[in-house]
What does this fold into?
Amino acid sequence: GVVTMKKNFKRLISLLLIISMALSFVGCKGPEEVQKDVEVVEEGKYTPGTYTGVGKGINGDVTVLVTVDANTIVEVKVTEHSETAGISDAAINEVPGKIIEAQSFDVDGTSGATMTSNAIKEAVESALNQAMGIVAEENESDLAFTNPDVIIVGAGFSGINAAIEAADLGAKVMLFEQNGIIGGSINYAGGTLSGAGTQMQKDAGVEDNPDLFYEDIKRIGGEIFIPELTRKHVEMSAAAVDWMDSLGPDFGDRLPKQPATYESFGIPREHRVEKGTVYLETVKPLLEKHIEDGNVILLLETKVNDIIIENGAVTGVVAQSKDGKEIEYKAKSTILATGGYAHNEEWINRYNFANVLTSAPPHATGSGYDFAEKAGAVFSNMDYLPAYAGGVPVSETGFKQSVTAKTSKYPGVIWVNKDGNRMIDEIDSTPGPIQKTWATAPENIVYIVFDETVKQTNDPILTVSSKADEGWTRFEQEIQKGEVVFKADTIEELAELSGINAEALQETIEKYNGYVDLGEDKEFGRKSALQKLENGPYYAVKTVPYVLLTKGGPLMNDKAQILNKDKEPIPGLYQCGELIGGANIGGAASVGGLANTICVVWGKIAAQSATEYSLNK
It folds into this structure.
């Protein structure tokens, strides 16, 4: 809601037109009538009523109700917002009063809550324009500057950290975000960071160093990582954790931990806050301050559709505002902070799975991979993508995962592929081999097969949007649809309905039933929950893998410069965050606290390199 000269000029023209119209009546009326007409014009500044205006806050829309009479702003009320409690409260409490007092939206905001203040002012401006019958025009001159030094695509955790660092170093930064809120995947993430030699470790008497961290990554993740990048990451990790710590989030007892869900380190080096959003709220005031000081422009609901390449260098982006207008923005440096590609079926099909679902947020579209490829990037570790087992591809949610079949220790079932063959011990296998089963099955399709006894004696096998399928209701509905859950009186008929090789399935079940008689699964060593498949009707649930995070990315050097096929930096192009590929740093494993720490370490490195290139070029 910045007042632009153009808008003021338009209002001035409107006012002059009203005055000239009023004066044109003067020539043909008596003095009393003239007086009366001019008063009507004066009093008619607004059409009385209550109007709704919407402005852009840092966390999304701020909705304001503005009540006016013919000439006065009577009431300003913030009705809806998702701004940060504590930071935005002052603006929400103070700015409406200032607007009523000044009888204008053009008032000073509340210090420390500039974006919320601006959102309220923008919303009130929109409401008053409606009351005056003026159509507001979006205008580039609303921006604090139009010639940034650094463009950052994506205002997730890494993009925000990059923007803060670049602005700290003196760059003018334009930060693009396709969503109405900032934060990207950190809004859904856990609250862990990992570093070697952190202040919290020192305070707790834990001795650690980058070499030990490097050896741990090698042990946990195997050697598919890129040594130069892993080395740089472990060396910078403690400074990243200490920086976050210095900003004051609540690390609880401040004792370094072992990862709760991933393989343990040799030394406790995971640091935890309650959840990922804590980190977002911690860095947000720094971003807001730079926005307030005119160093950073944040453009929400603005999707970058393309990058601009001139003479082999990346020189800017083509962005689309929510009204559909495309505008070119130029800068010497562009940082891609666009996140992974887990919500892009095309990229997953290309590198990973023929059939797949996603549980990633819709913004993980992989646009950064498209831009990097266009600029000449090569990719590393794209084939490594851990996916969860048991996604049920129901037609109504398409690519988006909504129904899951239980794969953890569900008794009495066997898992077969399209060829009708079993692949693994279905009960006592660990998550890694189970994931691999789904990843390596032909067309990535695995059927869970069981009989009526299993159905009668167990909880429902399906989970619908994280809730249990009460009374097998959804299961029965899916049988009726006949797309992913199949029911038949014979094994042969079940195979025909579901698309499994009938002869092989018959043979597999006979062999399995023989193992039950023996009390030992000769093929896969399964000992638990062995019970015969012999009591029809029989059931098959079709499942595929589903993904959340992606692990490969464009090849880069330790300055976060994206490289071409000759391993040379592409001029003007940098990256950070999930896009860089966790496997390029952590190998073929989930390393505790790695993903969030990558957003701090590499957000800062990308910003330092991009700023140096831009300001010294």
Q: What stands out?
A: Residues 382 and 411 are 35 Å apart (CA to CA).
